[in-house]
């Protein structure tokens, strides 16, 4: 297969982890005889420094000409002042998502037996966790009208029925290939948008996906049950704000946020893939960042955008293999650890040996 992949390494640890993800893609390319054309462009804080904008025209064009995009991380203290005219998050990430029409954020949460002791949650709650969050990404309170004076401020949360239907279909299609259960998170007892969310998801699942089980749960209860019965969840469907909060909470179940990937998808096979952690400027350029989230994001890229399911599975199995062998980055162990580069090399070698 031939595919064009845009790389946006971004800021902080982004370049380090993305380099290892590209190394793994090159191993897949060699073993399975694919042809991946890689184009690296600027995005985020580094793009602000060099071009004045976090999402330059050249980057926009490269993304739109690609089959998929792999993103490292953006932002950092240098660009964190809320009074800045342009910021990596708002004029970068949010603008990019809107421009590319990627409205569905997919975040798998899975525990590895060898890493269970790393989590602050008791072990008995962590066995068998395998869930997927489907978060609406381009609507809700983050994109609503905003007003601010010295005395008051407001953020409008707004959703249309069409927006809710399309994200529900994404969750439903994923659930069909899993345990056929969707948990939809809302606050329908007090919020009008949640009431529309609940009625729309109920109607669509009943009419189009009758074989699926749909349960509704309030956001506060969801936050509690994620810690008290996490293994019960299969596919969790959320709006933008609730999904942002819950996915970070769920990351603590795995023992390290460095292990978790994500995908941002639209109507077709195109997607933007990135680890869920931030740019971690405090450990940048030290060679200790965990590249597994970025590598697993590359695995999701192969699965969702290129339909290379076997290759994606090989990456997942290779990461599980090196972890089982005790090859761990600093965030995963209190004893001896490997560097960012050594972890990427270990995963690549696993792939090249198949």
Give the number of domains: 2
Strand order of the largest sheet: 2-1-3-12-11-4-5-10-8-9
Residue windows where pLDDT falls under 50 for at least 5 positions: none
How many helices? The count is: 11
State the shape: globular
Order of helices and strands: EHEHHEHEEEEHEHEHEHEEHHH
Structural class: alpha/beta
User: Could you give me the name of the CATH homologous superfamily of the largest domain?
Assistant: Isopropylmalate Dehydrogenase
Q: Mean of the pLDDT scores? A: 95
Give the termini distance in whole angstroms: 19 Å
Let me know the largest β-sheet.
10 strands, mixed
Which architecture of the largest domain would the CATH scheme give at its second level?
3-Layer(aba) Sandwich
Fraction of residues in H or I helices: 40-55%
- Rg, rounded, reads 20 Å
- The total of beta strands comes to 12
CATH topology of the largest domain: Isopropylmalate Dehydrogenase
Q: Indicate the CATH class of the largest domain.
A: Alpha Beta
Q: Strand percentage, roughly?
A: 15-25%
């Amino acid at each position: 297969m031939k595919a064009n992949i845009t790389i946006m390494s971004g800021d902080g640890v982004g370049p380090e982890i993305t380099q290892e993800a590209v190394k793994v893609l090159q191993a897949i390319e060699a073993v399975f005889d694919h042809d991946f054309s890689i184009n690296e462009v600027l995005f985020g804080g580094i793009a602000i420094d060099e071009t004045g904008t976090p999402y330059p025209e050249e980057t926009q064009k490269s993304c739109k000409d690609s089959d998929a995009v792999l993103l490292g991380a953006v932002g950092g203290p240098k660009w964190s002042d809320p009074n800045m005219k342009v910021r990596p998050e708002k004029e970068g990430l949010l603008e990019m998502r809107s421009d590319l029409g990627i409205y569905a954020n997919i975040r798998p949460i899975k525990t590895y037996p060898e890493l269970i002791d790393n989590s602050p949650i008791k072990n008995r709650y962590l066995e068998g966790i395998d869930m997927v969050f489907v978060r609406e990404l381009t609507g809700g309170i983050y994109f609503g009208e905003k007003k601010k004076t010295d005395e008051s401020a407001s953020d409008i949360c707004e959703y249309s029925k069409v927006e809710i239907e399309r994200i529900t279909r994404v969750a439903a299609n994923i659930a069909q290939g899993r345990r056929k259960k969707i948990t939809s998170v809302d606050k329908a007892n007090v919020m009008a948008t949640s009431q529309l969310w609940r009625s729309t998801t109920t109607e669509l699942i009943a009419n189009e996906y009758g074989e699926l089980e749909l349960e509704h749960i309030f956001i506060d209860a969801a936050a509690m049950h994620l810690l008290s019965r996490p293994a019960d969840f299969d596919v969790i469907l959320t709006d933008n704000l609730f999904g942002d909060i819950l996915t970070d909470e769920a990351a603590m179940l795995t023992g390290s946020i460095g292990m978790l990937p994500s995908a941002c998808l639209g109507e077709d096979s195109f997607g933007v893939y990135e680890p869920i952690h931030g740019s971690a400027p405090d450990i940048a350029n030290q060679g200790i960042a965990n590249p597994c989230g970025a590598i697993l994001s590359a695995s999701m890229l192969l699965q969702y955008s290129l339909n290379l399911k076997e290759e994606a599975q090989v990456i997942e199995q290779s990461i599980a293999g090196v972890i089982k062998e005790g090859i761990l980055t600093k965030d995963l162990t209190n004893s001896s650890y490997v560097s960012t580069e050594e972890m990427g090399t270990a995963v690549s070698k696993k792939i090249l040996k198949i």
